[in-house]
Amino acid sequence: MESHSLKRPTRRVFLSSVAMTLVAAGAGPALARSFSGLLPWQEGVANPPLQVRPGGWLFLTPEEVATMEAVVDRLVPADDLSIGGKEAGCVVYLDRQLAGTYGTSGRLYTSGPFLPGLPTQGYQAAATPSQRYRAGIAALNAFTRDAKGGKRFAELSPEDQDALLKEMEAGKVALPNKVDAKGFFNLMLSNAMEGFFADPIYGGNKDMASWKMLGFPGARYDYRDHVSKHNQPYPLPPVSIAGSTDWMAK
Amino acid sequence: MTTILPRKDVVIVGLGWTGAILAQELTDEGLDVLAIERGPWRDTSTDFNIGYAQDELRYAIRRDLFLQPATEAMTMRNNLSQTALPMREYGSFLPGSGVGGAGVHWNGHTWRFFNTDFKIADNLTQRYGADRVSELQLQNWGVESAELEKHYDKFEYLAGISGKAGNINGQIQPGGNPFEDPRSREYPLPPLDMTYAPTLFAEATRSLGLHPFPTPAANVSRDYINPLGIAMGQCTMCGFCERFGCANYSKSSAQTTILPVLMKKKNFEVRTDSEVLRIELDASGKNARGVTYVNTSGEEFFQPADMVLLCAYGLHNVRLMLLSGIGQPYDPNTGEGTVGRNYCYQTNAGAQVFFDDKNFNPFVAAGALGQTLDDYNGDAFDHGGLDFVGGAGINCIPTNGRPIQTRPTPPGTPRWGKDWKQATVNAYKSTLSFSAQGSSYPTRGNYLDLDPTYKDRFGRPLLRVTFDFPDNDIRMSNWVSDRMEEIAKSFGAKQYVNTRRKKGWDSVPYQSTHNTGGAVMGEDSKTSSVNKYLQSWDVSNLFVIGASAFAHNAGKNPTGTVGALAYHTADAIRQQYLRNPGQPLVSA
């Protein structure tokens, strides 16, 4: 087995009938490879997720953090069923997502021309999620400063926050700088739900709070002993990709 | 500069289900076969790793295993009067990428189409008159069920399908689908053990006089060793099937059923992360010389070959034909031309039943673990007094309880806040969902071509999808939704809701990755791109294999028929084509 870390596979590599050229993990974009004569497998190329750890912010500014913590606590309020969105880590989740490929639309088709589309054609603007949050949060706070006696969104009462979020959801509020209030609300809502319900490894869903609330067992991966137990509660608590927080030092 | 490589007997574009089947069959014939795959190499232990395969965010939301729009997007519009715009994020359908293709992350519903599908134009015209189908562009496929039976059988045994036969050599079998055409033998494996919701659905629909049966599943119900000697392990009902690779070797795919044998062969090679730019023709335009492809360093290669097999996803097969100037592009204004013709989709509708006193444990699930009834599918029922043709399979197949996406709530529930949370908790375990997977019939205006504006990273035009649900299909879906409402009502639960299909195909919410047609098979070279053996009418050493060959789409998942057609093609190449290479198997 040959192993190449060169960016350009040589022609010889392609012509060798049993050549198997592999590229060291992390060497940048995947390179063309040729496989023949055996089922290729290489150690060290699996790509497990990285554990997000709270502490510090990679994308959001302090004011943006304060705003989003207030927002996620209204979208997912703390009550008898679960902790709230802030404590669950939904903003930590959001910050790490915005700092990565998601924030830059790295996976998406981002070539122009950018034309206004029909609803059936989906999102057609050029702004990436990270740009939309930067502009959207600024517009939201500018709006509340004007309309709510100089207060930022996070300083409003929960009732006033709920009322404003409902107006955004319904598209009934015009935010400054032509920010699409309804579109921005939907973006915040979908990201908050992702953070709250995703595996805790991504920074939200602290202690599997949402999974415990629903009774979702998480990453168990084998239910053969329960499939025929119709209408009976599943007995085991959830586990995440990283196991259970009960097993770890706090 | 293009590097010219040594000749191969066969070059295959795309190493998913069909590419792997054709490669396996043609290397058995002693041919020297090369597959060129745009995406990466993928194997179970590395890429569907049991340590983190259960990651909904990564695989279902960010779609780690799928074709990324940055690599190739498509544009869409509902009709000719609109300007198509790119789907910047895939939504309504999600094409695959990489070795194994979309066969890596499918659910595993494995169907045979009806004979009345393959003979659709003859059957519907004879039964209901030409007027009934005049708004549609229906055409026969050029094959019949009896001819495909052994190929369906071969695919089902390769893949270890778990199910219950409904008709063995004309004998109706209790517990199976009484509407299916005759099959030669039982499924290789018995049905999966049923979860609670489909069990309840089967009881309810049976008491209405309907005929539910276990959905044929590519999630193996028992340990299985397939005819190639490859072992699969019993499905654990983990609830991470569609959008995920299987870490248990339980879901049939090229990885779990073919590649361990194929990859050992000295006369097979795959080049990954290499994208075919076009098929090259000789001066006559009637023979493919090979393909030009580019690797991730941007280097171009010309790979000469005696035969070219297009085995990419159906939509990509069509695009590569258009980009290579093969066949006459379809013109929706005149109805002439073949490439891009008869693009079809799936006409789906849904129902949810909300109970107070049930626990369905939705996370105990497999992609194809459930019950189906075909009483309202295809032409299994009399349309004499109705105003449409076609139908839908009714499926109760709860595939998962993954909480980012699967959180049903009753109508009127807010999307956030305290009331949302309480309603979500109440409904999570106690909601029974079922759906109608409806047929999709061709019209003159639904088609595929190259977009005039938007380009891919190599400067090639994107594929343009022009599609809306035909009026016939909307009438069909509404009638089926009425039947679903009868079923939903019969449960006697506190509440149910029906989601009906409306005009205006929306590319945003996920619906189905069952895109069919565009390079359809048929009897007439004026209305089809390929003959009954999926050989191009125009370029005799080119075969185009996949759901691109479907002349319409049935109310069933396509993979079983795609697999059968792949074996049908392989058989024709081995038994007929190789005796007289380069010649048409059917004269135009």
Characteristic terms for this protein:
heterodimer, A: 250 residues, mainly alpha, 2 domains, two-stranded parallel ribbon, 8 helices, globular, disordered N terminus, B: 588 residues, alpha/beta, FAD/NAD(P)-binding domain, 8-stranded mixed β-sheet, 6-stranded antiparallel β-sheet, 13 helices
Briefly, what is this?
Chain A has 250 residues and is an all-alpha fold. Chain A has helices at residues 11-15, 62-75, 85-88, 90-98, 129-147, 158-169, 181-197, 209-214, and strands spanning 2-3, 21-22, 33-35.
Radius of gyration of chain A: 23 Å
User: How would you describe the shape of chain B?
Assistant: globular
Name the structural class of chain B: alpha/beta
Q: What spatial form of chain A do the alpha-carbon principal axes imply?
A: globular
CATH class of chain B: Alpha Beta
Strand tally of chain A, please? 3
β-strand amount of chain B:
15-25%
Q: Largest inter-chain interface?
A: A-B, 87 and 97 residues
Bin the strand percentage of chain A.
Answer: under 5%
- The average pLDDT score of chain B comes to 98
Unreliably modeled segments of chain A: 1-28
Strand order of the largest sheet of chain A: 1-2
Number of helical stretches of at least 4 residues of chain B: 13
Taking Cα atoms only, what radius of gyration of chain B do you get, to the nearest Å?
A: 23 Å
Largest sheet of chain B: 8 strands, mixed
| Main β-sheet description of chain A | 2 strands, parallel
Give the CA-CA distance, first to last residue of chain B: 38 Å
Element string of chain A (H = helix, E = strand): EHEEHHHHHHH
CATH architecture of chain B: 3-Layer(bba) Sandwich
Question: Superfamily at the CATH H level of chain B?
Answer: FAD/NAD(P)-binding domain
